[in-house]
Design a protein that fits this description.
Two copies of one chain form a homodimer. Chain A is α+β, with helices and mostly antiparallel strands and about 90 residues long. Chain A has three helices and four strands. The longest helix of chain A has 15 residues. Chains A, B: InterPro entries: Selenoprotein_Rdx-typ, Thioredoxin-like_sf.
Chain lengths: ~90, ~90
């Protein structure tokens, strides 16, 4: 992975049955960004956790960000992250 | 990630439009094995590549293994890998 192809990780709560939406998001991101992403990882966890990281940076946290990103927000939060990296 | 919760990675060819089946496999594995897995990563690639790794071990390669694993084979190849690790 080069800096140009970041790792996205989606950490979700298995007890809350969030695999379906997490799997959907992984596929949306890979469908949109393709090889601009190094990988998208799904990480099973517990305790109501739902977090999206780009490399080490937390870009979405369920409680902080008010639930889950939808089809409009999901690519936007990634674009925002990429642009902020480009601008240093 | 402990040794008890391995990383699975699925490397697929974007040009071949294998995201759909790769995303399905990721979700099947997470649905079956849950937190016994540390993570399942989807890795976009090119050139007709389709590979599944458990940690560093290649457990499925499209040309070697005759195409793609189906719903019966997919969990089996993982179980086989886990058992071989347990038996040293």
């Amino acid at each position: 992975m080069t800096p140009a192809s970041p790792r996205v990780s989606i950490r979700y709560c298995t007890q809350c049955n969030w695999l379906l939406r997490s799997g959907w998001m992984a596929q949306e991101l890979l469908s949109t960004f393709g090889q601009a992403l190094g990988e998208v990882a799904l990480i099973p966890d517990t305790g109501g956790r739902f977090e999206i990281h780009v490399n080490e940076t937390l870009i979405w946290e369920r409680k902080r960000d008010g639930g889950f990103p939808g089809p409009n927000e999901l690519p936007r939060v990634l674009w925002r992250r990429f642009l902020s990296e480009l601008s240093g």
